Structures
1.
Amino acid sequence: MQSDVIARTAEQTDPSQVPGAVVDASRLKLPVWAIVLLGNPLSLIGCVMFVAIVALAAFAPLLTHFDPNAMIAPLSQAPTATHPFGTNQEGEDILSQVLYGARFSLAVGLGVGFAIAFLATAIGMAAGYAGGWVDDTLTLLMNIFLIIPQLPLLIVIGTYIPLHSDIAAASALVMTAVITLTGWAWGARVIRAQTLSLRNRDFVQAAIVTGEPAWRIIFVEMLPNMTSLIVNTVILSTMGGILTEAGLDYLGVGNVNQVTWGAMLFKAQADSDLFMGAWWGFVFPGLAIALTVMSMILINNGLDAISNPRLRKVPRRKTVRSVVSPPEPAGVEAVS
Amino acid sequence: MRFLVRRVAFYVVAFWVAITVNFLLPRLLPGNPIDYFQMRYSAILANNPHLLDTLKPVFDFKHQSLAVQYVHYLGNLAHLNFGPSYSQFPTPVNDLIAQALPWSLFLAGVSALVAFVIGTLLGIVAAWWRSGTVDTVVTPLTMFMQSFPAFFVAMIILYFLGVIGGWFPLDHAFGDTVQPGFNLPFFADVLTHAAMPLLALLLASVGGWLLGMRAVMINTLSEDYITMAEAKGLRTRRIVFMYAARNALLPQITSLAIVLGYALTSLVLIENVFAYPGLGYLMVNAVKATDYPLMQAIFFLITVAMLGANFVADLLYAVLDPRARA
């Protein structure tokens, strides 16, 4: 009797049996977060979209044989078979520009995302854990960075420090650094709030009282509980990084030499693509940005369900797939 | 009271940091704006050397120590003396800003108000009748719209409504055929020129209000007093607006600061799409022309505006929520 109770309990708490999963992951033995992420249809779409965009950017040379900077094609042509996205006013193929531009935009976006998450976590946890004057100073710093509007500040900085260069890696690095240094404050504030609430919880208080060293409390006790928040910060900061970088390039403060989505929009405006009816000049890079950001919003929604199980879909009652029936007591068969 | 005093102290510190950053940036980096200016306008300066004096309020790098320059800078700031513009020398910067400011205020003010009203109303409806028509249609549509960059939405509007449809004029604030002044043709012309930028700004900012209001309302609707109101048999409209929405509006005020920052960013980008002669357009042109005095002045103005708006929001919050006055 006890063995089948254990078996039934094991089946009910088996993490692969997440209710409402679209994908039957019971055979795949994936960790819980992967199952929830892929189980929710919207976040599955988001994951697929994001992976597809990264793959397209990575395999760009294989997908198009046009050099994005080569002005060889007929000028300002509508989409055709050879140029599926058309060409711009300088004779460059737009499809190849979108694919190669994805590399720069994604690189800056992901760089900003991870850098801001790192910086925000470091500063937020330091402020939340230390308390006292450290907390007051860091909070003042956070509030100042929050109040000064980011784009005007970046425009002013962009005048004095050139954000564009002929070397793609250099300009990507400078842009990432500048956007990170002006945009870390919001994530830091959120992480600080969570750290403060965790610090008052019993397990942390117990750890402090039993004399655990501070570094151990921060990294071993508190940090694992903040994983979902940090991942959330990474995703939101990546989105913000992509949009800010595109905005800076569009204004001409960032890159106009490199091939990026924002620079394509800058060229579309400068070459009066809009007024000449050449919609392919700006629609495709804009859609690329929108699809990338949308995929991350969808993934973000799926991640909310991991940290908050109440957001997972609860299915209608359905029959249990495998029924563990109690074994007949040996005595009954003997009697009947 | 202590809450307000602390907030005022913070704003003073933030203001000081902003103007110090504005002071330090051109001086920390290599290159001297005065040399640049002398090189660019060498012809004019050869004939009129006294014009260099007009630049003193802005840059006086070469001769004095940093501390003395800082004191002069603060003094000039107190008199709002920003010097002449580099790109439109010798027009004073203040004149250029005075021309551009009303357009930005008009655009930002109208769109912020309309976005707030529409977004909040739709958010209330979406929250109360969850999974109703409004919620299932508008909420995903808003999330979808939030992922589009603001200037891309503006470009699409400009293309489809302006270039293809031809319903609205394509750029600037008013046409060449009308006389600026308090006359009806001018106002009508201004409105037709402002229609597309207003629509673009509206679409960019309404999403934030809608999703925020919906989220707060959903939390408010789970409170006990709402259940009590329903049990008492009050009319639905009364519960929704007098009880739930009134309490849900309060946290929205705290998000005003973030929304304003985002609206400012959108304003700069959208003004550029439509070549609308507001502060955003002026700022980007100043950057392209490396017009340092104009850029510094606009950055100063924008920072002061943000601080002021945040301060007003804090005041409003202190007035509306007695718990904050503790």
Note: Chain B touches chain A through 49 residues (CB under 8 Å).
2.
Amino acid sequence: MKKLCLIVNPIAGMGGRVGLKGTNGADIVAKSLELGAKPVSPVRAVEALRVLKKSGAEFELITYPAEMGELEAAEAGLKARVIGNIASGKTTADDTKRAAKEMLELGVDIILVAGGDGTMSDVIEAIGTRAPILGVPTGVKLHSAAFANTPEVAGQVAARFLSEGLPLQEAEVMDIDEDAYRENRLVAKLRGYAIVPYEPVMMQTTKEGSTGFELADQKAIARWTIELMERGRVYILGPGTTTRAVAEELGIYDSTLLGVDLIYDFKLFARDANERQILEAIDGKPATIIVSPIGRQGFIFGRGNQQLSPAVIRKVGKKNILVLATPHKLSLTQTLKVDTGDPELDDELRGYIPIITSYLQTHMVKII
Amino acid sequence: MTYRQARWTREGCLEPLVFELSRAGRKGTSLPPKVLARIKIPDKLIRRSLELPELSEPEVVRHYTRLSQMNYGVDLVFYPIGSCTMKYNPKICDELANAEEAACIHPYQAEETVQGALELMYRLERYLAEIAGVSRVCLQPSAGAHGELLGMLLVRAYHRSRGETRTQVIVPDSAHGTNFASAAMAGFNVVVIPSNNRGRVDLEALKSAVSEKTAALMLTNPNTLGLFEDEILEIAGMVHEVGGLLYYDGANMNGILGKSRPGDMGFDITHFNLHKTFSTPHGGGGPGAGPVGVVRKLEDFLPVPIIEYDRKRYYLDYDRPNSIGKIRSFYGNFGVLVKAYTYILMMGASGLEEVAETAVVNANYVMRKMADVSGFEVEFDGPCKHEVVFSAEPLKRETGVTARDVAKRLLDYGMHAPTYYFPPIVPEALMVEPTETETKEELDRFIAAMREIAEEARLNPEKLRAAPTATAIGRLDEVKASREPILSWKMYRKLAKE
């Protein structure tokens, strides 16, 4: 029988309603409680579990004690094997990390993580991509693509994963610097990637030139992108798996997943470049920015790729921006967003732009 | 009405393949040895081993009858598969196509001996041109997608003749899936534009997509949501203004016969699915026919030969210097052309118009009646044309049961499933095209089945996830089926060895 593990971050989401923009750190938890915040994560975790129970999928449920999963499982009417120890009422990020590690050692098939971006970052810090994860969105910040759209959807996808098996894909895990955010500055960091199941909901997408399989689609996109490349031009490759596929198609296997790489004459020219290095490299040379929407909200600039600053984008020019996205990714976002930090530039970038979605295929998508 | 599909098994397995039934030396024919002895076949043309199954005639008849009993067809059940126009095909069309005069002629026969066949094709071309509002029609393509490819090759030839290189073909996201592939096959890049919140082409997106690179826009009207593109004249204007052409995907012609014509809407190229609209049983790979009609400025590029009449005789005209050449061997799937010709003559102009009217009324009847079936919704307001797309999203939210489960469960009610998960812009899509050949009772039976299925989803969702159970085989692994299909005996044997 398949093993499904559950980690609930009981305090996730508490900071939201009381305007604290997140709940990372013990002092913020205390402050949230002071402001009268009530736990929201357990309730939403139970919603996902109820859907899972109703589906009739067979699995062994393993979870952490008390509010980290045991109570939620009981509430949803599911029997669970409880492992580990916590100080109930005083759980921290360390408990999440320890839970993920212990579950990995048990040979888990999938871990349901109920929390927000912070929780997800903790989990991948502990186990990386060694086990599939599925995020139940219960936190304040939900920029990571590793989350299902709603707790119900998380339950449904988990059910299908357990009963029918689903393909896996990499999904970004993002987190935002909460201290900066509280001062109204938004600094999103790409923490890494999780392996998540994905449901090819629409088999018929095959008709549209999409294979319905993320990796094959990425390869098709990469092929065409390379055909569009020319010598004597600097290609600024933003973070992400879709852009990484372009590097790999060029035979470059040491590109950075989370950073910005520069390619010149089909070779890696600079790795993990910062804003200054990018500006130097494109000085006096034509350049193209190649980016893919990051996270669930479809940001192409300003989330996880701040190296691509307003100065870089202006110098390259709007005409020389290539956006890549698989049909699946596009179906999740619908519209794209920009937040370069320069409102005037954001305005210039808005409107319909072509996105490469497959070999020989572009979609007109609106940047709002 | 209860339904239970036949399930023929032998030693616990489903009906064996015809190759597995083969026994050495069995045969269903006896050729006269004296005649055979007289025929001298050159040695190098004789194949020494021919891997064909060896069976007696009754074995063959029973085998295929049993297979047909484990299948769905429009002669057996309601078949509301949207975008495919699975309507009843009058038997008279088959009868005439199978008549000796039609079935036993050979494409290499001298023109004088096939004047009747040429006349039929010549007249059919005129009828189709009138129906679509175009000037000439090529009857050759063997299928809709083949017609699309021809259309795209004509687009290329047209721009090339003007010394232009145009690389992009614009396709709305509600388009037929084959459009994307056809454009790419003809060497174009595909630019997909989104639909607006009315389920129609988003003019703002179209405006951002058209340019001097635009070779053509491919569109079907009514679109795959069953909605009429009411801004079609603006759309045509925008594309023509930049020098592009308009291509009409004729898959949905059943909804407009005699009511509106692609040529009048501004389309330059139109294809027909004779097997959908003009009465040829289809599905399973043909034979079909996808004739392509063009406006006057594109006539010269049509494939050779075209059929001409000099007031004395009909003949095949190959003397067309600007033609793109051949699109297939010979002149098209003649049997399908005979069926279409028969159908058009039988219906007449007013009959064809009534086809569109009844098809549209039937779809709207289903849409209105389904409004009180909780669990399904229609995303876009207003009347539809010949088909309607329901979303099972509310049912999924409430019960976890998906559009796929509903579609599979319908099979247990003795009805074919609608097209599901298409068009991809509607979540949990169920695309229903009842067609004009269904009675009110049949439509009511479908609606009642949908209502019962929604109830089952609430009371016993497990039953739906297990569906179909009344069919010869249960639910297939669709991913495996589409990614690892075993298409021939050769492939099957090779896999068995491995």
Note: Residues 291 and 497 of chain B are 43 Å apart (CA to CA).
